[in-house]
Specification:
Blueprint lengths: L1 H19 L17 E7 L2 H4 L4 E7 L2 E10 L2 E6 L1 E6 L2 E8 L8 E10 L2 E10 L2 E13 L1
Antiparallel strand pairs: 1-2, 1-9, 2-3, 3-4, 5-6, 6-7, 7-8, 8-9
């Protein structure tokens, strides 16, 4: 009698599991991961209309994200390393610090953006001289 109850309970549990799986109640499918690595053309505010689009390069180094932001100024390339680069789900965060010439205050640019396919869109906080200004930014991947 006791073995009949165990068999019946086991059968009922298997039947309920079989019914629940097609409804999405079973094991969840793995979420696709986003990949920020690659070369991106970045535009801040209306920069995409003026032609100024710095290049953002992100790479994976030793299990961590790293990279830099570069643009051409007066026939030379200026490069700034990315700091505090991290990816949380599809949210990308990084900071760029720009030292003023002549020992003045440093400008800190904090980027936060949502990665979707080959596009990143987000907000940029620019801190300089005790003030913070917010801007929208967008980047389009040009290569991986």
């Amino acid at each position: 009698m006791k073995s009949n109850v165990i068999v019946w309970l086991t059968t009922a549990a298997l039947a309920l599991t079989a019914l629940a799986l097609p409804l999405g109640c079973g094991v969840a499918a793995a979420k696709p991961t986003v990949n920020p690595a690659g070369t991106w053309k970045l535009a801040v505010g209306t920069n995409s209309q003026t032609g100024f689009q710095p290049t953002l390069k992100i790479r994976l180094e030793g299990g961590k994200l790293a990279g830099g932001l570069s643009h051409s100024t007066n026939s030379r390339i200026e490069y700034r390393a990315l700091e505090d680069v991290r990816l949380e789900g599809s949210e990308l965060f990084f900071t760029v610090k720009i030292a003023s010439s002549g020992g003045g205050p440093t400008m800190t640019r904090r980027y936060q953006g949502t990665l979707s396919g080959d596009t990143i869109k987000g907000k940029l906080d620019i801190e300089f001289g005790g003030e913070t200004r917010a801007r929208d930014w967008e980047a389009k991947r040009v290569s991986q």
